[in-house]
Amino acid sequence: MVDLPESPDAMKRRFERDGCYFPLPVLTEAEAAECRAECEAFEREHPDHVGLYDMKANLLFPWIDRLIRKPGLTEGLAPLLGPDILCWGVGFRNKPADSKTYVGWHQDTPYIHIGPLLVTCWLALTPATEANGCLRVIPGSHKWPHLRHDEKDDPDSMLTRGHYIAEAFDDSGVIPVVLRPGEAAVIHYNIVHSSQTNRTKGRRMGMLIDCMPADSVKTGEREYATLIRGEDRWNNFEPDTPPKTAFGAAERENHRHSVEAMTADFYAGSDRTPESLTGKTRNVL
Ligand SMILES: O=C(O)CCC(=O)C(=O)O
Q: Does any ligand 1 atom lie closer than 6 A to the CB of residue 135?
């Protein structure tokens, strides 16, 4: 049994109105600390491969595959997404202490060829505060049209494509998404969001868990996803192969294959190579 923050109907209403829902308790603080320790152990052991965890890290590490099936996540998402849920992939979003790393204002929809709905569950592994550059969102902006985006080669942008909204918009309604470790924010993929620099002495660490109703449709390249709740009666995605061994050779091969399918459309029109294929890190440590 999972204790939801409020009734499923109230959760759905708030999500549909605002395009975001938080805080959603997913893990205990102790569990979030264990996830942080797992992540940092990998960073110490494989410093040249850290970029691989930018996308679909759930295919590399069994602990992440177990995390995405936890009732705290699946039952918290069900009121928003319905009973049948696919996880598209998991990536880390870690910001170094006292750094210039930031995320420009953007929507995810221009880059994601899935519809009608995809959400990002931003799960905090450390406190996420205004001082350390927590996510910022504009509630209600998920109902806006797609705004014009551009991209630039900015080493301080946490987004590999360096994309940002290149037209004027009203940011007066912005709110900070302050979270405790183990809490998550679920955001609609069309919401306008960003994050500022980390001005504190500690890292800001979080995971993006991208999920969708299992009947979602992908145009373009056929892709892979993991069923984390209910049934998949639509077969719109190939099932991803869960990992058996942490960062094993077969897992790395499978990860590469699935990320190549994912980024074929996601990176269309960009001359950048996804970090999740090269392993090169930019600004996360
Ligand atoms: O972690 C953050 O600060 C935001 C990340 C983000 O918006 C993204 O990766 O699309």
A: yes
Written as tens digits, the pLDDT of the chain (285 aa) is 789 999 999 999 999 999 999 999 999 999 999 999 999 999 999 999 998 899 999 999 999 999 999 999 999 999 999 999 999 999 999 999 999 999 999 999 998 999 999 999 999 999 999 999 999 999 999 999 999 999 988 889 998 788 999 999 999 999 999 999 999 999 999 999 999 999 999 999 999 999 999 999 999 889 999 999 999 999 999 999 999 999 999 999 999 999 999 988 777 777 777 788 887 776 666
CATH value at residue 61: 2.60.120.620
CA angle 19, 237, 76 (to 5 degrees): 35
Mutate to test the pocket of ligand 1, among 94, 126, 158, 205 (most ligand atoms within 8 A of CB): 158
User: Is 195's C-beta closer than 6 angstroms to any atom of ligand 1?
Assistant: yes
Determine the length of the chain.
Answer: 285
Half-sphere exposure of 113 (CA within 13 A, CB side): 16
206 lines ligand 1 (CB under 6 A): yes
Does residue 257 lie within any of the structural domains? Answer: yes
Residue 61 lies in a domain: yes
Based on the structure, what is the number of domains in the chain?
1
Domain residue limits at 13:
8-276
